[in-house]
Amino acid sequence: MKHVRDILTIKGTSVDCVPGEENVVTAARLMNDQRIGALVVTQDGRMVGIFTERDILMRIVAAGRDPNTTIIQDVMSAPCVIVSPEDSLAQCKAIMTQKRIRHLPVVAGDDLVGIVSTGDVLASENHELETTINYLNEYIYG
User: Which end of the chain has fewer CB within 10 Å, C or N?
Assistant: First the structure.
């Protein structure tokens, strides 16, 4: 059974963060530059929420707010749903499905040690399936 730590070993532990006092445009530009769908929101060095593409759509665009003057802490998702490195990918999938979220910050103790997305979980599952298929082909066809 695969765990969150297995994804972080491959993906790395880097997490893009943004201060809650920053405006939405700055966060959106950072997300575009990094080609990511979420930023962890921090205040005084600690995680206080998460800001996602969905937050931009629902809380800025659909609400008619000005992204230049709206600050992230007013439109972020909080509190964050988190996982630990020891949680299984099956647990992550269940959480993501139940909560209808696509990003899970990974916390060990009090430390933010990574972030896992639905894309990460799917890529891991695909790799595992490909490995199984290759193994079975070798077994059947020699």
Answer: C
Q: Please classify residue 24 by burial: count the beta carbons closer than 10 Å to its beta carbon, then call 0-12 exposed, 13-18 middle and 19+ buried.
A: buried
CA–CA separation, 135 vs 14, rounded Å?
A: 33
Q: Within 10 Å of residue 8's Cβ, how many Cβ atoms?
A: 19
pLDDT at residue 43 in the model = 94
Q: How many C-beta atoms lie closer than 10 Å to residue 73's C-beta?
A: 17
Type of residue numbered 134: N
**Domains along the sequence of the chain with CATH:** 4-141 (3.10.580.10)
Angle in degrees, CA 73, 79, 85, rounded to 5: 120
Taking the whole predicted model, whether its pTM rises above 0.70 is answered as yes
Tens-place pLDDT, residues 69-102: 999 999 999 999 999 999 999 999 999 999 999 9
